[in-house]
Amino acid sequence: MNLPKLVALVVVALVLSSCAGREPLLAKSATVPAGVDLSGRWQLRNDSNETSEAISDIERELAGANEGLIPKTRGQKSSRKTNDDTQVHVFLETGESLKITQVERGLFVSFDRAVVEEYRFGEQRMANVGPVVAERVSGWENGAYVIETRGKEGAMLIETYRLDGKDVMIRTIRIVHDDESKLDVRQVFDRV
Predict the structure, then answer these.
(1) What residues form DSSP beta bridges with 107?
(2) CB distance 29 to 124 below 8 Å
(3) Residue 15 C-alpha from the chain's centroid
(4) Closest Cα to residue 39, out of 114, 99, 79, 97?
(5) How far is it, in rounded angstroms, from Cα 16 to Cα 6?
(6) Is a pLDDT exceeding 90 seen at residue 189?
(7) Is the pTM of this model over 0.70?
(8) Cβ neighbours of residue 14 under 8 Å, at least 6 residues apart?
Protein backbone atom coordinates (compact mmCIF):
# COMPACT_ATOMS: atom_id res chain seq x y z
CA MET A 1 0.00 0.00 0.00
CA ASN A 2 1.40 3.39 -0.93
CA LEU A 3 1.76 6.29 1.51
CA PRO A 4 -1.14 8.49 0.23
CA LYS A 5 -3.62 5.58 0.58
CA LEU A 6 -2.34 4.80 4.07
CA VAL A 7 -2.67 8.44 5.13
CA ALA A 8 -6.21 8.56 3.69
CA LEU A 9 -7.17 5.40 5.62
CA VAL A 10 -5.77 6.82 8.86
CA VAL A 11 -7.70 10.08 8.34
CA VAL A 12 -10.94 8.18 7.64
CA ALA A 13 -10.39 6.01 10.75
CA LEU A 14 -9.82 9.10 12.90
CA VAL A 15 -12.95 10.81 11.55
CA LEU A 16 -15.07 7.71 12.12
CA SER A 17 -13.74 7.21 15.65
CA SER A 18 -14.49 10.84 16.55
CA CYS A 19 -18.09 10.33 15.40
CA ALA A 20 -18.56 7.18 17.44
CA GLY A 21 -20.87 7.33 20.45
CA ARG A 22 -19.73 7.12 24.01
CA GLU A 23 -18.96 3.82 25.67
CA PRO A 24 -22.03 1.86 26.77
CA LEU A 25 -22.78 1.73 30.48
CA LEU A 26 -21.22 -1.25 32.22
CA ALA A 27 -23.69 -4.05 32.89
CA LYS A 28 -24.59 -4.89 36.49
CA SER A 29 -24.90 -8.37 37.93
CA ALA A 30 -28.16 -10.28 37.55
CA THR A 31 -27.28 -12.49 40.54
CA VAL A 32 -29.09 -11.57 43.75
CA PRO A 33 -26.71 -11.54 46.72
CA ALA A 34 -27.45 -14.30 49.23
CA GLY A 35 -30.05 -13.24 51.79
CA VAL A 36 -30.92 -9.91 50.15
CA ASP A 37 -34.63 -9.32 49.64
CA LEU A 38 -35.85 -5.73 49.27
CA SER A 39 -39.51 -6.83 49.23
CA GLY A 40 -41.83 -5.03 51.60
CA ARG A 41 -43.57 -1.78 52.41
CA TRP A 42 -41.22 1.04 53.29
CA GLN A 43 -41.93 4.46 54.84
CA LEU A 44 -39.61 7.45 54.47
CA ARG A 45 -38.36 8.66 57.85
CA ASN A 46 -39.44 12.13 58.93
CA ASP A 47 -35.81 13.27 59.10
CA SER A 48 -35.46 12.38 55.39
CA ASN A 49 -38.38 14.60 54.28
CA GLU A 50 -36.03 17.44 53.27
CA THR A 51 -34.68 15.17 50.54
CA SER A 52 -38.05 15.36 48.78
CA GLU A 53 -37.72 19.13 48.69
CA ALA A 54 -34.16 18.91 47.33
CA ILE A 55 -35.35 16.53 44.60
CA SER A 56 -38.24 18.84 43.65
CA ASP A 57 -35.89 21.83 43.54
CA ILE A 58 -33.40 20.12 41.20
CA GLU A 59 -36.19 18.81 38.96
CA ARG A 60 -37.56 22.34 38.62
CA GLU A 61 -34.09 23.74 37.94
CA LEU A 62 -33.20 21.11 35.35
CA ALA A 63 -36.58 21.55 33.66
CA GLY A 64 -35.87 25.28 33.29
CA ALA A 65 -38.52 26.48 35.76
CA ASN A 66 -36.19 29.22 37.00
CA GLU A 67 -35.89 30.74 33.54
CA GLY A 68 -37.95 33.79 32.71
CA LEU A 69 -40.98 33.47 30.49
CA ILE A 70 -40.11 36.61 28.56
CA PRO A 71 -37.41 36.09 25.92
CA LYS A 72 -34.23 38.10 26.25
CA THR A 73 -33.96 41.18 24.09
CA ARG A 74 -31.36 41.56 21.42
CA GLY A 75 -27.92 41.90 22.93
CA GLN A 76 -28.79 40.03 26.13
CA LYS A 77 -27.48 36.52 26.50
CA SER A 78 -29.81 33.79 27.65
CA SER A 79 -28.49 31.44 30.31
CA ARG A 80 -30.83 28.69 29.10
CA LYS A 81 -29.28 25.90 27.11
CA THR A 82 -31.12 25.05 23.94
CA ASN A 83 -30.03 21.63 22.77
CA ASP A 84 -28.11 20.42 25.80
CA ASP A 85 -30.69 20.62 28.60
CA THR A 86 -30.35 17.89 31.19
CA GLN A 87 -33.40 15.66 30.80
CA VAL A 88 -32.41 12.60 32.82
CA HIS A 89 -34.42 13.94 35.80
CA VAL A 90 -37.64 12.79 34.09
CA PHE A 91 -36.64 9.21 34.95
CA LEU A 92 -36.50 9.95 38.68
CA GLU A 93 -39.45 8.72 40.72
CA THR A 94 -39.84 9.47 44.40
CA GLY A 95 -42.28 8.86 47.17
CA GLU A 96 -42.67 8.75 50.92
CA SER A 97 -44.23 5.28 50.84
CA LEU A 98 -42.63 2.55 48.73
CA LYS A 99 -43.81 -0.96 48.06
CA ILE A 100 -41.09 -3.16 46.62
CA THR A 101 -41.78 -6.58 45.16
CA GLN A 102 -38.66 -8.62 44.42
CA VAL A 103 -39.23 -11.55 42.10
CA GLU A 104 -36.80 -14.07 40.62
CA ARG A 105 -35.55 -11.81 37.83
CA GLY A 106 -36.48 -8.29 38.82
CA LEU A 107 -37.94 -5.60 41.06
CA PHE A 108 -41.21 -3.70 41.01
CA VAL A 109 -41.14 -0.44 42.96
CA SER A 110 -44.41 1.37 43.67
CA PHE A 111 -44.02 5.02 44.69
CA ASP A 112 -46.89 6.34 46.84
CA ARG A 113 -49.25 3.86 45.14
CA ALA A 114 -49.15 6.07 42.03
CA VAL A 115 -46.25 5.00 39.82
CA VAL A 116 -44.72 1.54 39.45
CA GLU A 117 -41.25 1.10 38.01
CA GLU A 118 -40.04 -2.29 36.78
CA TYR A 119 -36.38 -3.25 36.71
CA ARG A 120 -34.88 -6.50 35.43
CA PHE A 121 -31.76 -7.82 37.16
CA GLY A 122 -28.80 -7.32 34.84
CA GLU A 123 -30.78 -5.26 32.33
CA GLN A 124 -29.07 -3.12 29.73
CA ARG A 125 -31.57 -1.28 27.55
CA MET A 126 -32.95 2.00 26.29
CA ALA A 127 -35.63 3.50 28.55
CA ASN A 128 -38.05 6.24 27.63
CA VAL A 129 -40.48 8.67 29.21
CA GLY A 130 -42.49 10.07 26.32
CA PRO A 131 -40.00 11.45 23.79
CA VAL A 132 -37.06 11.42 26.23
CA VAL A 133 -34.83 8.38 25.69
CA ALA A 134 -31.91 7.28 27.85
CA GLU A 135 -29.60 4.32 28.26
CA ARG A 136 -30.23 2.25 31.41
CA VAL A 137 -28.45 -0.53 33.24
CA SER A 138 -29.47 -2.06 36.54
CA GLY A 139 -28.49 -4.93 38.74
CA TRP A 140 -26.62 -5.90 41.86
CA GLU A 141 -23.35 -4.34 42.96
CA ASN A 142 -21.72 -4.67 46.39
CA GLY A 143 -24.94 -5.87 48.05
CA ALA A 144 -27.06 -3.00 46.68
CA TYR A 145 -29.45 -2.76 43.76
CA VAL A 146 -28.07 -0.09 41.41
CA ILE A 147 -29.88 1.68 38.57
CA GLU A 148 -27.86 3.92 36.23
CA THR A 149 -29.65 6.01 33.62
CA ARG A 150 -27.66 8.15 31.16
CA GLY A 151 -29.38 10.77 29.02
CA LYS A 152 -28.33 11.78 25.53
CA GLU A 153 -26.52 14.83 26.90
CA GLY A 154 -24.40 12.58 29.14
CA ALA A 155 -26.05 13.36 32.49
CA MET A 156 -26.28 10.35 34.81
CA LEU A 157 -29.01 9.45 37.29
CA ILE A 158 -27.64 6.89 39.75
CA GLU A 159 -29.97 5.26 42.28
CA THR A 160 -29.16 2.59 44.85
CA TYR A 161 -31.30 0.56 47.22
CA ARG A 162 -29.47 -1.11 50.12
CA LEU A 163 -30.67 -2.88 53.25
CA ASP A 164 -29.22 -1.75 56.58
CA GLY A 165 -30.25 -4.65 58.77
CA LYS A 166 -33.65 -6.24 58.27
CA ASP A 167 -35.99 -3.28 58.77
CA VAL A 168 -34.10 -0.29 57.34
CA MET A 169 -33.47 0.52 53.69
CA ILE A 170 -31.16 3.24 52.41
CA ARG A 171 -31.89 4.82 49.02
CA THR A 172 -29.33 7.13 47.46
CA ILE A 173 -30.06 9.34 44.46
CA ARG A 174 -27.42 11.20 42.47
CA ILE A 175 -27.53 13.24 39.29
CA VAL A 176 -24.13 14.02 37.80
CA HIS A 177 -23.44 16.02 34.64
CA ASP A 178 -20.08 17.12 33.27
CA ASP A 179 -18.37 15.86 36.45
CA GLU A 180 -20.59 18.18 38.52
CA SER A 181 -22.99 16.83 41.12
CA LYS A 182 -26.46 18.29 40.54
CA LEU A 183 -28.15 16.18 43.23
CA ASP A 184 -26.83 13.89 45.96
CA VAL A 185 -29.37 12.74 48.56
CA ARG A 186 -29.71 9.85 50.96
CA GLN A 187 -33.14 8.66 52.05
CA VAL A 188 -33.79 6.33 54.97
CA PHE A 189 -36.88 4.09 54.92
CA ASP A 190 -38.29 1.92 57.70
CA ARG A 191 -40.15 -1.31 57.07
CA VAL A 192 -43.85 -0.99 57.97
Answers:
(1) 102, 119
(2) no
(3) 31
(4) 99
(5) 15
(6) yes
(7) yes
(8) none
